[in-house]
C-alpha cells in the first residue's frame, strides 16, 4: 500500500506489548503504507486524509503479529511419525527419510508450514533448514520463494551439517556437505537473498545444525562468516541430557562453554531449546545477550524437559517462541506455544508464578523480534514500526465470557484471526489466507509426503 494511503482500525482492545505494556480497552490503530502511524484510546483522529479502508473491530483484540523463532519447514511432510520417541531415537528413525527430500518436496512443505502459521497469526516466520542432499535442487530458493508468495516476513537460517554416519553422526553420508561446501553455499545464500533494510521481508542467518551434527571447524568458521557478512547466527543448543554428555565426552566441557569457545555466544546469536541450562549457563547467556527460542510443545513431544524460561527472563536473556519442526509439533502453529509456554513452565519450580498471560504474549511477539534482531522494526505496536499486526476475534462462544482479552487469547482456545497484516498488506481474512490456496497446498503436501514415503521405503 502506498505510503500516503491509510487503513483505520477502531473499537478494538489493544495490547501494544511496548516497553510499558500499554493497553487500551477500546482504541484505534492507524496504518499508513507499511508503517503504524498512530494508535491510542478511543476513536481515530478526525480529518485523516486518504483513508482507503475503515475496520470496525468491535469484539476484537489487536496485538503485534506473532513471531516464530525456530522451525524446520521440510518436516511438514513427515508429520505423525516416531510419535513415542525421545530426540535421539526420533532422529535415528527419521534421518533416512529426510535424506531423500528434494526441491518440490521442500517447496510444498514450506507452503504448508507457512500457511498454517500465517492463518494462525504469525507475521514473521523463520526456517532452520540444514538438510541438503546431493542433487536435491535449490532448496533455499524454494523456501524463500514460498515465504515471499505467502507474504510473510521471513528469516532463513541457512543450516548445514558436515558430520555424517562415517564421522559418528546420524545423517547418511550423501545428506551432508563438506566444510568448504557448506560455508561457500551459506555465503552465496546470504549474498543472494539477505536484505538488511528496515522493512526487509527476507533475511538470512548462518546456522550450522547442532554440536553433534557439525564439526568444531564448521561452528567456528560459520561464526566468523556470519560476522564478516553482518548477519545473525542460529543453532540448536542444550536440548537434551544426551547432548550435554556428548559435549563433555568429546570436548571436555558442557554445551555453553563449548559454544563460547567457538565464538557462539553474543547478541547476534540465538539458540533453539536451551532446556538443560545451569545457573552458570544462564548467566553466560545473559552476559552475552545470547537469545533463546523456546519450543515448549516440541520439548514435551520429545520428552526433552522443561526449559528454565522464568530464570532466563529474570537474568535478562532474550527469549522468543518457536514452533519447531512439525515432525515434533504436528499442529505447526504458534498460538499453541503461547498457552503451552505458560502451562508447561508452571510445572517447573516456579509453579503458578512462572509466567503470566502477558509474559507469554511478550515471548511470542517482542521477545521473538529481539532474538531475530528486529525489535526496532516489529514485535510491538508503536508509531513508526512496521505494520505487522493481528485482529483476534474474542466475542464468540470460545472467549466471550472471559473479561480480560489478553487472558482470553493466551489461556483460551485458539482465537479466530479476522485479519492479519504484514508490512501493511492483509494476508488473512476470517481465518483464511488471501495469498494462497489452502486446499491446493493441502493436496500438494499430501502428494509430496506420499512420494517421499515411497522413495524412502524403496531405499
SSE map:
Layout: E1 6-15, E2 23-32, E3 35-41, E4 51-56, E5 60-64, E6 66-67, H1 87-98, H2 103-118, E7 122-129, H3 139-150, E8 153-160, H4 179-193, E9 202-208, H5 216-229, E10 233-237, H6 241-251, H7 255-261, E11 269-273, H8 279-288, E12 291-294, H9 296-301, H10 309-315, E13 319-321, H11 335-345, H12 357-371, E14 389-393, H13 405-411, E15 417-422, E16 425-429, E17 432-433, H14 438-458
Parallel strand pairs: 1-4, 1-5, 6-7, 7-8, 8-9, 10-11, 11-12, 12-13
Antiparallel strand pairs: 1-2, 2-3, 5-14, 14-15, 15-16, 16-17
What does this protein structure show overall?
- Strand 11 (269-273), helix 8 (279-288) and strand 12 form a beta-alpha-beta unit.
- The protein has 14 helices and 17 strands.
- It has helices spanning 87-98, 103-118, 139-150, 179-193, 216-229, 241-251, 255-261, 279-288, 296-301, 309-315, 335-345, 357-371, 405-411, 438-458, and strands at residues 6-15, 23-32, 35-41, 51-56, 60-64, 66-67, 122-129, 153-160, 202-208, 233-237, 269-273, 291-294, 319-321, 389-393, 417-422, 425-429, 432-433.
- The chain is globular and about 70 Å long.
- The longest helix has 21 residues, at 438-458.
- The N and C termini lie far apart (50 Å).
Q: How many strands? A: 17
Strand percent estimate: 15-25%
Give the count of helical stretches: 14
The profile of the biggest β sheet is: 9 strands, mixed
Q: What structural class results from the helix and strand content? A: alpha/beta
Mean pLDDT: 96
Which regions are unreliable across 5 or more consecutive residues at pLDDT < 50? none
Specify Rg, calculated over alpha carbons.
21 Å
Distance between the termini: 50 Å
Shape: globular
Assign a percent range to the helix content.
25-40%
EC number: 3.5.4.32
Keywords: Hydrolase
Domain Amidohydrolase-related: 61-425
Pfam family, one: Amidohydro_1
